[in-house]
Amino acid sequence: MSSLITLSVLGLEWLNERHAGWRMNRREFLTDLFYVVLGATAISWASMKLAEDPLKAAKASLGISTEWAMHLPFLLQVAMVILVIEFGQYWMHRLMHNSTPFWLTHAPHHHITQLNAAKGYVGNPIELFLISLSLLALFDLPPAAVFCGLNILSAVSTFAHANLRADPPKFYSLIFTTIRHHSLHHSTDYESTRCNYANSLILLDRLFGTYREGEASVVGQDDLRRLSIREQFLFPFQPAIARVRERKRAGRDASIQAIN
Length: 260
Description:
single chain, mainly alpha, 260 residues, 0% strand
């Protein structure tokens, strides 16, 4: 369903784009397609096997029960799915902007130089795994409520990344993240990225003091240098790679001096 939502919004972008500089091209399409497939396969599998299944096992072994959640009104169950997932993603995202090790995993996502409906899938695999973590498995909720909640989040997040000239009504933007909020988060200067962390529920930024009004038409980092897929994968390890190279260079210099 998420892929169908993304494809539908990409089609709308061709009809009514927001910024010509964000227009999809062949290279961007192929890169985004790679990450959509990665998210639906490897990241989804890792999230289930390394997080959800162990959490469910721990819940069962500890005898934790949230049967009460099964008896809530359906709309409240859907709202609970949205809030539990978004609350976790908000704080993980905020951590990524305020801790160097976590920022190194997240920075590749901020090196994208355009926004479109598929860009929410793009990033370093470590970050994509971390941002997928959730405590939802601790709650006993019907599959229908989980399905609805996940797809509402997917739709809101997709529109929040979309190159679409369409601004929702004010009451919507008080609660949900829009392209205006999220484009500002992708500003070219690092300090301006430290706001509007909510993937879909901008209300959390308003509540926790990280909301900022505005919009950006130019996005990216490091003089708008676009990273290749290989560079995105290696980015978190660049400091370690640089240290190893420096040690090798120092060792070679020492050997040359000894010979001379």
